[in-house]
Design brief:
Layout (H helix, E strand, L loop, with lengths): L1 H35 L1
Length: 37
């Protein structure tokens, strides 16, 4: 049970990290796009 909970926590952390990285990539891409014009 403990291993399952730890595995679930790792998945949640990984998903949140990926969302943050993805959000930053979109933000930088939009910023560079507006700055380019």
């Amino acid at each position: 049970a403990v291993t399952g909970q730890a595995y679930f926590c790792l998945i949640v952390i990984a998903v949140l990290t990926n969302l943050v990285v993805f959000y930053r990539l979109i933000y930088v891409y939009r910023y560079l796009g507006q700055k380019g014009d």
